[in-house]
Specification:
The complex is a heterodimer of chains A (about 350) and B (about 475). Chain A is an alpha+beta fold and about 350 residues long. Chain A is built from 11 helices and 17 strands. Chain B folds into 4 domains: about 100 residues, 2-Layer Sandwich (Uridine Diphospho-n-acetylenolpyruvylglucosamine Reductase, domain 2); about 120 residues, Uridine Diphospho-n-acetylenolpyruvylglucosamine Reductase, domain 3 (2-Layer Sandwich); about 110 residues, 2-Layer Sandwich (Alpha-Beta Plaits), CATH 3.30.70.2190; about 140 residues, Alpha-Beta Plaits (2-Layer Sandwich), CATH 3.30.70.2740. Helices cover about 40% and strands about 20% of the residues of chain B. In chain B, a hairpin with a 4-residue loop joins β18 and β19. The chains are: A alpha+beta (about 350), B alpha+beta (about 475). Chain A: Keywords: FAD, Flavoprotein.
Chain lengths: ~350, ~475
Amino acid sequence: MGDIAAELEATVRAAAASGTKLSIVAGGSKSFLGRDVAGECLDVSGHSGILDYQPAELVLTARAGTTLTEIAQCLEDCGQMLPFEPPVFDGKATIGGTLACDAAGPARPWRGSVRDATLGVTLINGRGERLRFGGQVLKNVAGYDVSRLQAGAMGTLGVMTEVTVRLLPIPAATATLVREMDAAAAIRRMNEMTRTPLPISAAAWLDGKLYMRLEGAERAVAGARGKIEADFDSGDESIWRHIREQSLEFFKGSTPLWRFSVASNSGHRNADEPWLLDWGGAQRWLRGEFDAQYLESLACDLGGQVSLYRHGDRSGEVFHPQVPAMRNVQMRLKKSFDPHGIFNVGRMYDGI
Amino acid sequence: MNASAKTDDGGKLALAARFRELLRADQIIVDAESKRPYECDALPVYKAMPLLVLVPETTRQVQAIVRLCYELKVPVVARGAGTGLSAGALPDSNGVLVSLARLSRIIEVDPDARIARVQPGVRNLAISEAAEEFGLYYAPDPSSQIACSIGGNIAENSGGVHCLKYGLTVHNVLGMEIVTAEGEILQVGGRGLDTAGYDLNALFIGSEGLLGIVTEVWVKLLPKPEHARVVMAGFDSVLNAGDAVSAVIAAGIIPAGLEMMDGFAIQAAEDFVNAGYPRDARALLLCEVDGNEDEVLEHVERIESLFREFGATSCRVSRDDAERALFWKGRKAAFPAAGRISPDYYCMDGTIPRRKIGAVLEAIQQLSEQYGLRISNVFHAGDGNLHPLILFDASVPGELHAAEELGGKILELCVQVGGSITGEHGVGVEKLRYMLAQFNDAELAQFHAIKDALDPAGILNPGKGIPTLRQCQEYRSIDASGGAKR
C-alpha cells in the first residue's frame, strides 16, 4: 500500500517536456495484449491501496495499482463483489489495468462490463495534470464521461491513479448446468434462454458441451433449475474460473488466439476450427494461424469485430481496422489527452 | 457569411435558400410563429429564437445540413422531443435548430439478439411497446418516457426509477450512427458487446449534443421480469428512512426501484391522487423488487422486516399489479402535485452518496427556512439522486431569483458531500456556473480539449454543457465581489 501519485505526476511532466515515451505497467498481467510498445517503463504497481469502501453504498475507491485479489478479499467479508468477474491472472491483475483493458469474465453480458461498473477515475493526462472525473454516485452527467472512456483505452489517454467502481452483492445461490450439443445448437439455445427471465449469469460452449450458470436468491435458482433441469446435468462450477483465467487446455500453447466480439445470435461458422464460445455467444475465441483479413470479413458477417488477442505478430495491427473517419476521431481524441504523444504510443493502433 | 450578417432577415433568407438545395420547403421553418414551439425546452426560463428550424427525415439530410453548417460556420442545435430540463436544447439565435422528430422509425426488433434498432426521434416508451410481443423491454425509464425521445436520452444519459438495478442509458445502448461536426457518418459500437478503440459510446452518451448528432441507435432489450411487488413504508423521520435504505442494500438486495418522499411531498401527492399514503409520516419509502416470483417473495419478506427494524410506522406490500401501479401513481404525480399547491416550482437535480441523505435533507430544510421558500423533496433514494422542488411564485418580484439562488446552494451542497451537480438532467445552460463547483480549471480545459478534438469549428450546441474559461472568470469575479448569483 502506498501513494506515489506525486512521483508519477513528476515523471509524466518530465516526460512531456522531453518527449520521452512511457510504457505504463502495474502487475504486467495483460502485457500480451495489444501491440508491442517501446518506451520507458512507468511502474504504477507501488500506487496501491483501498481508499474508501462503504458496503451500504456498493461503491469502492482504490488506487489504480491495487490488485484484484486484495479488493476481492476486502469485499468478500461484506458479501460483495466486482460485478464484471474479471480475470485475476495469478493475482497480478490490478484494478487500473483491468479498467484499461476492460477485462471482464463470463458474467459480462448479464452484470455488465468494467466500463459499466466504473463511476469515477483520477488520471494524470499528458500535460502532467492530475484530474478527477465522475465520482462515487451512479448518476452523474456533469461533463463528458471521461471515466468510462478509459475502459479499453489501454492507458493511451493517461495514467490512472484512482478508480471508483460500483459493486454488487454476491448472489446467495449458484448452480452450474451442462448438456452435450454442437456449437450451432448451443448458440440457438443460449439466445433462446437469455430471452427469458431466467437468472442466468454465464453461458458458454466448448468441446461439444453447453454450460449455463444460474445465480440469485435461493428460491430463484431453485425455481429456475426446476424449469430447465430435465434438459441439463449438474456441471462443475470451476469451469467459469478456468474460462475467466484462460487456464483451460484450449488457451495453452503459442498458437495465435483470436477474439471475436459479435452479435450473440450470429450463426456458427468454420465449424471444424477450434472455437470456444462465451458471453452467451457474444464473445468467441478461435485458435490457429489465419489470415487477418479473412477473419475480419468473417467478423463483419457475424455483426462485429475480431482482434488478435494473444501471440502472433504484435508489431503489426492487432485490432479490427477502423474506417478513416473513425481513425481520425480516435487520433484527435488521443491528442486531446496526450498532446506530446508519450503514453503507450502504438499499443492500440499504429500511432495511438 | 459571419454571425452579424446572419442576424438580419436578408442573412436568414439567404441561409434558408442554401438549405432549400438540400431539403423540401416544408422542412425549413422560417417564420417566427412556426418557430415559436422550438424556442425553449421544458425549462422555459431560457428562451431564444433560432434563425431557422430544419426538419430532416433521413441520415443523409442530417449529414447535408451539418456539412453546410460546417462550411458556413453556423451553429447547429439538435432537438428531440424538447422534454429536457436544463435548457440543453435552447436554440442559438445565430444558428439553426435541427428537429429530429421525423426520424421516428423503429427500424428493427431482433428478439433473439435482444436488440432494437431505432431512429433518434422514437419515443422511449415506444421501444418497450414494440418489444412487448417478444416479452422484452427497454429498461431506462425517465419520468418523461411517454414523450421523450431516445436521441434526447442519449444526449442526457437519462436514467429513471429503475436505474439502480438496470443502469442508465449508457448501460443499455450497444451502438449508434452519428453525424460528426464535420458531416462524416460514423458507426460507433455495434451489435456485439464491445468494439476496439476508444469507447465512443461512453463519450457520446451524456455529451449533450456537443460532439455529434445521433441518427440511429441500437439499444439492448431485456426480458420482462416475471413478477414485481412494491413495499410501501412510512417513517416518522427522514433519518430512519435513510438508514432503512442503506440496510436494504447492505442486506444484498438490489431493488428495481427505491424512492423516497418527504412529508410535504407525501401530503401533496396524497391530496392529488389518493394513493393511500400514510399522511402522518415524515418520510415514505417505495421499494420495488422484481424478478422470478420466488425471488421476489423472498426479498419482500426481508425488506418488510428490515423496514420494521428501522422504525417503519406503517408498512404495506402491493397485492397485485393494480395496487402496485397505485402506489407508484403518487410518486409519479409528485411534480404536478407540487404544481397544484404552488404557482410555480423549480425542480432541481443533484446526486449524493446514499449515507448522506439525512444530513443533506436537514441542510436543505435550513436553506428553505433561510430563503423563506418551501421545498418538497422527492428522490431516487436508491441511487442518491435528489429532486428538491423549490416552490415559488414568479409573480412576486425576486422569488424566481431567490429560487434559483437556493437551487444553486443545494447543488454546491451535493458536491461538498461527494456528489454531483446533476444526476440526470444535464448541465445545459442552466447549470453552467455550477460546473465550477465540481471541476477545476485543468479538468474543464480537458473537456474543452475533447470538444475541440471532435468539433474543431465549435458549431455543435455551442454555449452548453461546459463553461468557457471566460465564463469561469466572470462567475468567479461575481462571487468574489459578493454579488448575487446569476
